[in-house]
Amino acid sequence: MTSPAAASSRERSGVFFAVAAFAMWGAFPAYFLLLRPASAFEIVDWRVLFSLAFCLIVVTVMRAWRAVIAIARQPRQLFMLALAAVLVFINWEVYVWGVLAGHVVETALGYFINPIVTVLLGVILLRERLRIAQWIAVGISAVAVLVLAVGYGSFPWLALSLALSFGLYGLVKKRVGPRVDALSGLTIETAWLFPLAVVQLVFVQLDTGISFGHHGVGHALLLLSAGVVTALPLLAFAAAARRLPLVYAGLIQYLTPVLQFVFGAFVLHEAMPAERWMGFGLVWIALIVLSVDLIVTGRSRRASVVPG
Prior knowledge:
There is one protein chain. With 308 residues, the chain is mainly alpha-helical. Helix content is 82%, strand content 0%. Helix 1 (4-26) runs parallel beside helix 13 (255-267), helix 4 (65-72) packs across helix 9 (182-207) and helix 6 (104-126) crosses helix 14. The longest helix has 31 residues, at 274-304. The radius of gyration is 20 Å and the shape is globular.
């Protein structure tokens, strides 16, 4: 049985890993902007290739090939990871394009909306039943999307594409479950994407030309670091997930879109008319409702299993 001191230490380390993971993800817009003049397609291609190279090195150093091979021998797991790979590839393409096109605030909106989309996916695909507070949060979010659509003058497809692709990615990863660790999963997912990234890189070369190696050593090193930059937050998140209750991890995840929103609105000075503030405000209210419901429900469940 784990002692209270050991449990407290484990939880503190979990908070550290969670904050580290979500802070790194929150800094992604600044990192991707440093990769200009590389296009979004080229950046994602190098991200896949260098992530795979990094994972292969780490798997070899940690002697973790047995776990990777064991997963590779399971057709169902391979198929699920291939599906996850396609979804995360779409998410990366849309996200990097949004950042480079000057839509950092809207990409942040996508990750604010993501928890709501995850709840809806649970209803639609898993036939889960929502509590009253969850329905209220979904309703407020729907109004927020309408307000933002009016404010933008167009449907916020970028934000919703990010939320939907990442929500579906999370759903697939949940189906894979704890049988696939973060390192093995990322290794196999990037291996699936390797041919797609190579083909897309060829088209980039034929169209606008590849920037890698043509804009100085610093730029080349930044592109080379894409593998480490991609893998580190994923590994930190996996470490946090093993140490923290889901409620805490769910609340800390808002650090990522908060940092992205602050960067877009106050560093890049993207336009924030009244309609945008109103729409974001409604999304934040929905997230507060969802978070409070999550905390209250979590406490009730823990109380129900304590012997009377």
